[in-house]
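Structural prep section.
Before we set up the soaks we want a predicted structure of the protein with adenosine-5'-tetraphosphate in place, mainly to decide which crystallisation condition to try first. Input record follows.
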Amino acid sequence: MIKDQKVIFSGIQPSGRITLGNYLGAVKNWAPLQEEGLCLYCVADLHAITVRQNPAELRQRSLTLYAQLLASGIDPEKSILFIQSHVAEHAELAWILNCYTMFGELSRMTQFKDKSAKNADNINCGLFAYPALMAADILLYQTDLVPVGVDQKQHVELTRDIAGRFNGLYSETFTVPEPLMQKSGAKIMSLSDPTKKMSKSDPNPKSYVLLMDSPDEIMRKFKSAVTDSESTVRRGEGRDGIGNLITIYSVAAGKTPEEVEAEFEGRGYGDFKKAVGEATVELLRPVRERTEELLKNKDYLEESYKAGAEKAARLAVRTLDKVKRKVGFAGKIR
Ligand code: AQP
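Run finished without errors. Recording the tokens verbatim:
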């Protein structure tokens, strides 16, 4: 495909309600990228069912997430914003790429190991093959850049290997993408166990701050965030909890971690936690309020996701047809 601009793709799963980690590590950075190239962003519902979901909740969370992405500044006139299951080419290319992805490669994926430990009664093939679907998501659009948090870097690297393997076998077919990570906020840790990342599917609600949490809830969650027995606001070995709060405050308030340490020199954890809470409340307030407004306008949301799916499918079909021809599927139907 001849491209006159960079293609940027990313997705987010409606596997829970989105957290401050998802926002700082990924979504917050998506709107500014609209000035850098053609952006495609999706609500990754096909990925979400790799873990058992309640159907009514999944449906509701997908729509809320779609509204949150709009509220975070993604402009459907500039970008292509859609729901993954509305574009059938994702599942179709994923099947083909499954056949070019090795069992050993998938077995090494950290997310698979973590999630199969957490869902021991449901280690399904979809959970195992998740990275091949993610490769399909990215490669369908000839993506150059994939903005992700640190936890997804390994999957983007596997996507690069799959693209390279396919290109090597059948000649240049896919653009080989690069991960794009933020310098700060790429991995926000759990508030109840700061050695683990903050995750929307964590069963402990005290471990995360949600985008839709009220100011009171946010303040309460930071107040009870796990820190340590010291009292200085400084990063350091074994100080994961305080280091995490410094990262959150520095991104929310637009300061460097060094500036944050200097600001809180000689002040206690109580003061600092209050400041982190307040900065987060102000950061999230406009997104929450705009989301609430958008959710009242179901017709607008429906119109927007339908238009997004149509635009995405027009691009996806081009790559998928090329792939089918290259692997040797007979005939031409469009
Ligand atoms: N704690 C985090 N810090 C920074 N970035 C994060 N991301 C996720 N958690 C953090 C980034 O958010 C984007 C969307 O993630 P996803 O929904 O595709 O899946 P995930 O990475 O598995 O996120 P969760 O919240 O942990 O979901 P569950 O609990 O369902 O597994 C990605 O760019 C991710 O890097």
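Observations: The chain has a mean pLDDT of 95.
Flagged for discussion at group meeting.
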